[in-house]
Amino acid sequence: MRPATHALIVIDVQNDFCPGGALAVGGGDEIIPRINALMGEFPVRVLTQDWHPANHSSFAANHPGAAAFSLMDMPYGPQVLWPTHCVQGTGGAAFHAALQTDPADLVIRKGFRPAIDSYSAFFENDHETPTGLEGYLRTRGVTDITLVGLATDFCVAYSAIDAAGLGFNATVLEGSCRAIDLNGSLSQAREKMRAAGVRLDA
Ligand code: VGL
Ligand code: ZN
């Protein structure tokens, strides 16, 4: 067991990000057995859930004529327009059935405001609006955060970079993540994580 100050954050292991889902990440379900095992090693365990209303502004379908995976300028910066995914209360938004959710201390939902996306578990895409996770972790005395889940180059990377920026020791276990890799986004995300002081481990 790791020290009491170490938290595991499991990012978005939901049906829509796994094979057969609306925004499937290749091999997304392969990481689940290792994540289940990791949960037994950490005294603090948090799951995140991408949780969008049907009218969410990150969905291409809500912008007539816009193609999925195109970029749109939002008041908070450029935003990828995604296929409709992880709609609140749908099967696609549910955790994958193989993920053990009982060991989780906290489930944090993000992306529920229609006008703004939230890749990071800590801040929405304006890099300002907090999710509340920082307060939870600090009040539990957490100093070290290990991140796993989906997708490496979006929600995992944004969460890890924010964790490092907030002063946590942040490690991403890349073997327990899978990437979308949209136009080189994986190599870019790895560069940005390294530059932010995130440790990348297998
Ligand atoms: C994610 C795109 C849109 C993720 C969530 O979990 O990485 N990516 N919403
Ligand atoms: Zn999303």
Give the overall silhouette: globular
Largest sheet: 6 strands, parallel
Overall structural class, as computed from helix and strand content, comes to alpha/beta
Arithmetic mean of pLDDT: 98
- In angstroms, what separates the terminal alpha carbons? 19 Å
Bound ligands, named by name, code or SMILES: pyrazine-2-carboxylic acid, zinc ion
What spatial order of strands do you see in the largest sheet? 5-2-1-6-7-8
Share of helical residues: 10-25%
Computed over alpha carbons, the radius of gyration is: 16 Å
How much of the polypeptide forms β-strand, as a percent range?
15-25%
Q: Helix and strand string, N-terminal first?
A: EHEEEEHEHEHE
Q: Runs with pLDDT <50, length 5+?
A: none
How many strand units? Answer: 8
Q: What is the tally of helical segments?
A: 4
Would you kindly provide a brief summary of this structure?
This protein has 202 residues and is an alpha/beta fold. The protein has helices spanning 32-39, 133-139, 152-165, 185-195, and strands spanning 6-11, 44-50, 71-74, 77-80, 106-110, 144-150, 169-178, 199-201.
Can you put this structure into words, describing what you see?
With 202 residues, the protein is an alpha/beta fold. Helices cover 20% and strands 23% of the residues. It has helices spanning 32-39, 133-139, 152-165, 185-195, and strands spanning 6-11, 44-50, 71-74, 77-80, 106-110, 144-150, 169-178, 199-201. The strands form 2 sheets. The protein has a 6-stranded parallel sheet with strand order 5-2-1-6-7-8. Strands 3-4 form a two-stranded antiparallel sheet. Strand 1, helix 1 (32-39) and strand 2 (44-50) form a beta-alpha-beta unit. The chain starts with 5 loop residues before the first strand and ends with a strand. Pyrazine-2-carboxylic acid binds next to helix 3.
